[in-house]
Write a structure and sequence with these properties.
Elements lengths: L1 H42 L2 H22 L6 H15 L14 H4 L5 E6 L4 E5 L19 H9 L9 E4 L2 E9 L5 E10 L4 H49 L14 H60 L4 H23 L1
Antiparallel strand pairs: 1-2, 1-5, 3-4, 4-5
């Protein structure tokens, strides 16, 4: 009994452990999937496209009026860029940036917004950078991959995928600014350096795996324990019923009304036990009938022998009845005794 209970407990704890491991591993897998999805998103072309779309909807319309003045209102353009940069966090603090060796090096830490007119002059930049003087021709070739985007924008390209790039964590976007009669009056150049998040994300996943996996494992173990307890209790009822059936006690049934596989198995076992009980009763009745038939055959043989012996005694009595009365009387007495024995055996 104790061994069987221990076996059930082993099954219960195995199921509990499996729920615990599934909960912890699932949480870790979700964290890795989310971290991988975030890294893939930052390294994909989807982010630059979203940036271009946002600039086209939010910034470009506000730059059309100062850009289309004659001459272009550089201060008005700067005010619009500063307002957007302060609200969106494109740039860092208000401190002047250190002199960059290139725009790409500077924007690896902070973002930058630049407006270039159709004469390829840099009208305004936020933050203002010493390496790119305002009012002078803007050298788009100094930034890797920017010049083809600027040329495409001035040629009337509207596909955001053709106006943005993401190379080595450096996001570069170009947004056309509409001028009079539908022409392109200028472009808004946006650059943003994306940090390498692989190592920080792995560290975050590792730390969260420690602090989140423990409660997740606890909840999984708790849920698994109660689920396994219900399952092993139902299996225990089946085991107890099977023991009673093995002893020939078919009055015990498994009461499981659930509609799952164990409930179906319980009902099938109850049906099997009832059929087995009927089979055993039929076999008992058949054995009794066979015993009676065997007894009848033995009785028949015994009575047949006694009748044969009686017939011999009667024949002998007939032969001696006139010659030797005493001998005939003796034979008749033996016949009478044989008849009484036969009657006794027949009456059972």
């Amino acid at each position: 009994m104790m061994g069987e209970i221990f076996a059930l407990r082993r099954l219960r704890w195995k199921l509990t452990l499996s729920y615990t491991l599934v909960a912890a591993v699932t949480l870790l897998a979700l964290e890795l999937i989310l971290a991988g999805a975030l890294v893939a998103f930052l390294n994909s072309d989807l982010l630059p496209r979203l940036v271009v779309q946002n600039f086209r909807d939010e910034v470009a319309p506000r730059l059309e009026r100062p850009l289309n003045q004659n001459p272009p209102n550089a201060e008005g353009i700067r005010e619009e860029l500063v307002g957007f940069a302060d609200n969106s966090g494109v740039r860092g603090g208000d401190r002047p940036p250190p002199p960059p060796t290139s725009l790409g090096n500077y924007t690896a830490d902070q973002g930058a917004l630049l407006v270039v007119d159709d004469r390829r002059r840099l009208l305004a930049s936020v933050p203002e950078m010493q390496g790119f003087p305002e009012g002078k021709r803007f050298d788009a070739g100094s930034i890797s991959g920017l010049e083809p985007l600027v040329n495409a924008a001035f040629d009337g390209e509207e596909n955001s995928g053709q106006l943005s790039s993401n190379v080595g964590g450096q996001v570069v976007t170009v947004t056309p600014i509409e001028g009079k009669k539908g022409r392109v009056a200028g472009v808004l150049v946006g650059t943003l350096g994306l940090p390498n998040l692989t190592a920080p994300l792995l560290i975050t996943v590792g730390i969260s795996a420690i602090f989140l996996a423990i409660p997740a494992a606890f909840l999984g173990a708790l849920f698994g324990f109660f689920t396994a307890w219900s399952l092993t209790r139902r299996i225990g009822r089946l085991a107890r019923a099977a023991r009673s059936w093995s002893r020939g006690d078919f009055s015990v049934t498994t009461k499981d009304r659930s509609r799952d596989e164990l409930g179906q198995l319980s009902r099938e076992l109850n049906s099997m036990a009832a059929e087995l009980e009927n089979l055993l009763q039929a076999r008992g009745e058949l054995a009794t009938l066979e015993a009676r038939n065997r007894f009848a055959r033995d009785l028949h043989d015994s009575v047949k022998q006694q009748v044969f012996a009686t017939s011999l005694q009667i024949a002998a009595a007939r032969a001696l009845i006139e010659k030797d009365t005493d001998s005939a009387e003796s034979h008749l007495s033996q016949d009478d005794e044989l008849v009484r024995q036969a009657q006794k055996e027949l009456n059972g």
